[in-house]
Amino acid sequence: MDVTDVALARQHPVGLVELARVPLRRWRTVLGVAAAVLLAVLVYLFVLPATYTATTAVVIRPVVTDPFSVPSGGADRAVNMTAESGIATSNDVIDKVAAITGRDTKEVADALEVETPVGGQVMRFNYAAHSEREAVQGANGAGQAYLDLRRGIYENQRAAVLKSYDDTIAVVTAQRTTTQRSLPSQAADSPSPRTSALLDQLRALNDQLATLAEQRSKIASADLSPGSITSAAREPIPSSRDAAPVILVAGLLGGLLLGALVAFARESLDRRLRTTAEAVAAIGAPLLGTVRRSRGGHPDEPDLRYLALALARWVDGPHRGPLVLLSSSANDGREQVTGGLAATLAVAGHEVQLGVTPESLDRIRPLMLDAQRRNPPVEPARVVRQRQPATAPAAAAGGTAGPEETVVIPAVRKPRPYPTADGPNGEVYRSATNEEKTQAIPASRPAAAGAGTRTDGQELRIGSGTVRLVELNALPGDGLTVLDAPPALHDERGVRAAREGRAVVVAARDRTRIAELVRLVERLRAVGVEPFGFVLTGDGRD
Q1: Which residues pair with residue 353 across a beta bridge?
Q2: Nearest CA to 470 among 507, 497, 448, 488?
Q3: Burial class (CB in 10 A: 0-12, 13-18, 19+), 414
């Protein structure tokens, strides 16, 4: 198979089943993130002090000279709410609220929030504090401070305008006084042109003074109120603990959602082997078998027997070389599969030479001893010769007895629980019954613990075969040779052995990283080793 084809085959679409499978596979991540979020919510609700939020509503109105007149069409747009919001959060307002509540100006600035609805003239002052009293004082103080500040601004503006009018009226009055002094003391029947001009000027100055006086009176009578507090804050007010059940539920659901997102992020960064199809696409070799693990961590024996059947061509073939089991890492279940396969072949009657590394010997040997306990050594077949009695006609004719008859008693896996008796010379006899007669067959004494193992501890009898533990680089024996290679991405000894035999890749579902598995296969093909197949360990589900 072309490596390019394998790379293209690895790109598979993600369906709804995969979307649900990733959070389930990484349930520890999901629960961990959800627990962290829920813990933060609990700390916010029950450890940190409660936060009380008071709200004061202020209606903003434009300054008008006649508050009882009908406003024009643009009167509702005469107030710039953006500018008013800036004034409401100015330093003057914050300083007054800090003086009322006794808190620092920075804390007041963080606790005060001003809302200005679009298209309206209602301003809301929200103040958050750790007590109801402080929150109410802060909200009402902010609203009143804003109104006082805005009124002071309007009063200063009116004072400046009135002063301007007063100055103009004073100038016009002085001009009128000068004009009056220029008039002749005695009026003539026919005034001169100069007198007529002075009279016209005097009338104009009087009209101007009247107009200025009227405008000044309008400015002086203007309503400078910037607005009023329509809804003052008062106790009781809501706090952060009022909706505790809703916040807990929201925190739990939000934590689960965030945990699922984190699980998908980890899955994208650390892609694991999930299905058999992904393994076939990554390795480019057929599946030899799926070996499930029991709750105790032992490989399933029926799965191992089916794996041995899948390897029957190699086991029974004329040119069988070492069978090398490779994996990308040490936690893929390779040692359990190798030991279980060697024990299964030994139970079938094969002489297996199991090559292991010195660092894995202490882990492989307990697996072999456990397999020996489950499959005790089988006694070899014995040949028993027994003289048969002469037939009646032959005895009457004076003939001799017939030759001895050979009876083969097949070996049994476990001795029968029949009572045994010690014979002469310390021999042990057991009963064997057939259709015609009952005879005593010599049997060996029960083996002591460890009798199926050589004194050096490297050869174990399992079933009707043996498993001999040797070094990984030992020469192949007469029987079958199975090699447990170290992790191939970090140690090349197994790859060297695979060049002389057949390579079987072991991958663990939900544990083996696809990137590492692909890198392993690429390295095998680079040195001329084509994987014979692969074994998938795990729970056996697709």
Answers
A1: 468, 481
A2: 497
A3: exposed
What are the phi and psi torsion angles at 425 (to 5°)? 60, 25
- Unique residue bearing structure tokens 């029949």: 418
C-alpha to C-alpha distance for 103 and 94, rounded to whole angstroms: 10
How do residues 225-284 score in pLDDT, each as one tens digit?
A: 888 898 888 888 888 888 888 989 999 999 999 999 998 888 778 788 888 888 898 898
Q: Check if the beta carbon of residue 299 is closer than 8 Å to that of residue 504.
A: no
SS3 state of residue 416: coil
Q: Which two tokens stand for residue 252?
A: 């739990």
Residue 85's beta-bridge partner residues? none
Region 171-184: what's the mean pLDDT?
A: 86
Residues 6+ apart with CB under 8 A from 139: 54, 55, 56, 125, 126, 127, 233
Sign of CA dihedral 31, 34, 40, 42: negative
Peptide bond preceding 358 in cis form (omega within 30 of 0)? no
Structure confidence by residue, pLDDT tens digits, 422-453: 444 444 444 444 444 444 444 444 444 344 44
- Long-range contact set of residues 381-388: C-beta below 8 Å, sequence gap at least 24: 381/408, 381/409, 381/410, 381/411, 382/408, 382/409, 382/411, 382/441, 382/442, 383/407, 383/408, 384/408, 384/409, 384/439, 384/441, 384/442, 386/439
Residue with tokens 């049994």: 412
Contacts of 453 (CB under 8 A, 6+ apart): 369, 372, 459, 460, 461
